[in-house]
Structure formats: C-alpha cells, structure tokens
Amino acid sequence: MRWVRTPGLAAGAVLIAGCNLLPRVSAPDNFGGFAPAAAEAARGEAPFTPPTACGGNLSPEQRMYLELVQEMVKQGQNYAALAHLDQLEKKASPAPQNVYLRAEALRGIGQPEPAGKLYRSLLDGCMAGHSLHGLGLLAADAGHWAEAHDYLLRASRERPASADVHNDLGMVLLLTGRRNDARREFLTAAELDRKNPLPVENLIVLLLLEGDPREAKRLAEHRKLTDKDVERLGERARRLAERTNTGGAAASLSSSPLE
Fold it and tell me: 119-151 burial string, b = 16+ CB within 10 Å, else e?
C-alpha cells in the first residue's frame, strides 16, 4: 500500500490501499464485462466534465481531493470515499462532481435507491452523461434491461467519446441478444481507448458465442492474453449461452436496430 499526502485537505495522510481490506458488495450476476466505477480516471482520462461547465472552477484543493476520492471509488474503497466526501463537504457546498462520486460510491456498496436519487438530481446539469451512465448500470444490476438500454443509449449521446459508455451499452446489447449492435459498440470502445482490455475481451466473448473460436484466438493472441484469461472468457461465453438458451435477458428488448 502507499500513502498520498494531501496538504490542507485532511489531518495527516490519506491511505490508498493496493488491495481492499473489506469485501466489495457484489452486484447481481451480469456475466462481467461492465466497466468498474470511476474507471476512466484510473486510466489517465479526464475525471470530470470541465469544471467551467459545472458552474465555476474547482479550487486546486477541491480537484486534488476529488481525484483522490475517485481513485478510492475505482479501487472499491467506497466507505472511505463516502467519509472523505463528508469531510470535503464540511468546507464547501458539494459541487456536481461531489454528488456524482457519492452516487458512484453508494452504487458500489449496494445502495441503489440513494444512488439513483443522486444520479437523477444531476440529469439537468453538466454531469448528465455521467449520471445517465450510472442509472444505466443500476438498471442492469437489477436486470431491467430495457431501462438499462435506454439510459446507456442516452449516455452515449451525451458522451459519444466515452469508451466505458460504449462498452457498457454493448454489454447490455450482448446480454439481450443483439450481437451485431453489441459488436459495433465494443469496436467503438476498443478504438476510443486502446489501453482498455474490456471491450476486446467482450468482443472475444461475442466471437465465441457466434461459434468463431479461430477469430477469438487470433484476437486474444494479438492482445497477448494469457491462457488463464482465455479460459475465463470461454467460461463467460458458456454461461451467457446457457442464459440466452433459457430465455433470460434476451427476451427483455426488442430486436429492432439501435436508433
């Protein structure tokens, strides 16, 4: 683990652990493939909508603190993230970014109702695209596939260059049997963020579902996936095939193409 000192933000130093000491609350079984909370910032992407679009600039202190909290959410340290948001909000009224991160942390600890309320409070502002994404993931966790599709499609229109939004929309499409549309979303996500393994892994699962192990193997070799990775993706494909064959999520959306 490592210590990150944040002068003036909190007494002493803030601990960011390399592994979680507390277990994360598991979401309902959605066969993996969705982006983790706060993933974009963890890969070095801009963590938030530009502050000027949110009604004013964040101070350097606020930005540093929020980036730290976002890293905690990404690592699954959601209780710590909530505590630090409480600390930050003692000093200033919460910015939209604070509200969004609180919603992400609440979603991470399995509290969909308060998380959803916070996401919805942001729908008319600068964090609308992020909040639509969060609402889509809440709906997917609950197995409400049509609702998840609607939110994620709207999020993709608000944030058309977000790899995670396209990936997660692709997952909902894949889980509901719309493989051609899912392929397009995964390819878009993979090209938008070449460092992100998730869209490529999801493409491999899709290829296995379509009975094309040769192309799946070629793609896995190109991305230098290990045998263990390939085995894990094969298991995901088998589980998804079983789910689809028994009805499952596939009946929850129409087969019409994406709008």
Answer: beebeeebbbbbbbbbbbbbbbbeeebebbbbb
SS3 of residue 3 by DSSP: strand
> What is the 3-class SS of 76-94, one letter each residue?
CCHHHHHHHHHHHHCCCCC
Q: What whole-number distance in Å separates Cα of residue 76 and Cα of residue 58?
A: 25
pLDDT value at 254 more than 90: no
**Structure-block tokens of residue 30:** 């959605």
The pair of three-digit structure tokens given for residue 247, joined into one six-digit string: 């009805």
Amino acid code (one letter) for 249: A
pLDDT, average across residues 195-212: 93
Is residue 187 pLDDT above 60, yes or no? yes
Q: Which amino acid is at 126?
A: C
Residues 6+ apart with CB under 8 A from 172: 136, 140, 145, 148, 149, 152
Query: What are the residue ranges spanned by the domains of the chain?
Result: 59-147, 161-248
CATH 1.25.40 fits 161-248, yes or no: yes
User: How many Cβ atoms sit within 10 Å of the Cβ of residue 95?
Assistant: 22
Question: How big is the chain, counted in residues?
Answer: 259
Identical topology for domains 59-147 and 161-248: yes
What's the mean pLDDT in 99-122?
A: 96
Q: Is 55 helix (H, G, I), strand (E, B) or coil?
A: coil
Residue 257, classified by CB atoms within 10 Å of its CB into exposed (0-12), middle (13-18) or buried (19+), is exposed
CA 150 to chain CA centroid, nearest Å: 16
Asked if residues 18 and 128 have their Cβ atoms less than 8 Å apart, the reply is no
